[in-house]
Structures are given as structure tokens and as C-alpha cells.
Amino acid sequence: MNAPLNHPLPLLDLDVLRTFVAIAETGSFTTAANAVFRTPSAVSMQIKKLEDILGRSVFARDARSVTLTTDGEMLLGYARRLLSINREVVSKFIIPDIVGVVRLGSPDDYGERVLPHVLKRFAQSHPSIAVDVTIDQSSNLRRRMDDRALDITLLTNSYKTSALGAEVLLTEPIVWAGAKGGCAHLREPLPVSLWEEGCAWRAGALEALGREGRNYRVAYMSAHTAGQRAAIMADLAVAPLPRSFLGNDMVELCPKDGMPDIGTYNLAMVVAPDASAPVKAVADHIRATFEVFRETGKF
């Protein structure tokens, strides 16, 4: 309902806008409710209140999905700007003014999949801290930490090994990934797509194939996740991936498909022992991100 022109316009509640943005970004009332620490019914009531104030529907709902209406798409831009201004203002008074540069290392897979989400949220809460990112293999990142060329690094380790001083953030199964409807796993010798030497996923996969006596050939090799995905989707090869990395166009290949169990791997974080306040802030943010992932399965 539109407000009469001689009455003041209603004020939008920032907490409601935060919920609105969370739903728009996740496409789910339930997932958004977890993100804003409310029940799904409370979230639904917030959106109803918002739509009543604006006199417009902001979401189109059906049994399987939630999408923004045209009005909702317009509101999303304003909501993000208002929330950003609010964070900036509040941070000036509440959050200590931490300034500095943090050198962060990450393997390619998590650098592509996770860091954009982590760094975007961190920049919103700590605008005065710059984060310089180095993408490399875990073995090289470990050496960079030892040489004090990095302040923090993420590392992938075999389930049998762990880096000295590393904090495990996540333990996850490594699975064989194949193209949906593909037949690469039926070929002899088995065509596999692998990373370079030093990759924990590669070591676990080759050990599993050797244990089962399965003949294989390295049909595709790349140091980047995008290259591995291309080989899988083209049905040129199968590849070892963390289960959470499987896309909708991939399937997990199990022992019933003739593929051996690989096991698990650890994603760990190493922080410099003499960490500064900015470094500690980045490390705490990464920990919080993976705590959410362990609970919800989403970054």
C-alpha cells in the first residue's frame, strides 16, 4: 500500500533487508534463515512485512525455488548499498581500526571456489585491511610459509599426513568424478585426469588404483581445477575430487562402478606464529567461514 503524500514515508528495517539479501543470494528461505540465525517462519514474516511496506512482491515462490521479481531485483541493489553504508558507519565506532596488508596463500581449487566469497565478506567488515593472494601448490605454499613470504596459507594434505603447526579446517572424502552419463570409467586402461606431483588428491587416487591393481593411463594433466573439470565433462577421463566439488554435470563413481575408494583429505590452515592483528582477523574470518560450511554445506 502506498503511503499518503502528506505522511512521512516508512523506514526500512536493516535487519529485514539483511534477510532479504540472504534469501536473494542463496535462493532458499531455509538456507537464509541459518545464515541470519532465525527460524524459517521468522524469515517469512520479515519478508511479508517488507512486501506490505513496499506494496510489491519481491520474490516469486514455487514448490522448488525462490526467485526475485522485477521489483525484487531493483530492491536488491538498494539493499546492498544500505547495508554496506551501515557496516561502514558502525565499523568507524565499534570495530577497531585495523590497518595492514595480509599475504594469503591458497591452492588453486580453494582459491577459485572459496576465496572470492571469503574475501568479499572480509572486505565488507574490514575495509582497511588489504589481502594479497598467492595461488600455488600446497608444497610450494608450505615453503613460502617457511621462508616467511606468507602470513597465512591454506594447504591440502593427505589424511595420513599433516603439516607441522597446521590447523585442520575440513576433512572430506575424495571421490572419483565422472561425466553424467559418461563411460570413461569403463575403458581399459582407465583414463585419469590428475594434478601435478605433490597433490594430496593425486597421491590418494594413485594409491587406491595400485591397491586394486587397476590399469590406468594419465590421459590429462593440469595444475588447475578448471582443466580437471573440462576433462571430466568431455568424458575424456575420470578424476579425483572432493565430494563437495562435484557439479550438477558430474557423478560420483563408486566401487559398484568399478572404482576403488580413495579415502579422505584434510584442508588445513597455517598462520605465522608472530601474527599481527590484521593476520589474526583474516584467520578468524576463514575459521568462521568453514564452521558455517561444516554446518550447512555452503560457503
UniProtKB/TrEMBL annotation:
Record bears the keyword Transcription regulation: yes
Pfam families per the UniProt record, alphabetical: HTH_1, LysR_substrate
GO MF, one annotated term: DNA-binding transcription factor activity
UniProt cross-references to Gene3D superfamilies, sorted A to Z: Periplasmic binding protein-like II, Winged helix-like DNA-binding domain superfamily/Winged helix DNA-binding domain
Keywords, comma-separated and alphabetical: DNA-binding, Transcription, Transcription regulation
InterPro entries linked to this entry: LTTR, LysR_HTH_N, LysR_subst-bd, WH-like_DNA-bd_sf, WH_DNA-bd_sf
Record domain HTH lysR-type: where: 12-69
PROSITE patterns in the record: HTH_LYSR (PS50931)
Source organism superkingdom: Bacteria
Family the UniProt entry places it in: Belongs to the LysR transcriptional regulatory family.
Protein name (database record): Transcriptional regulator
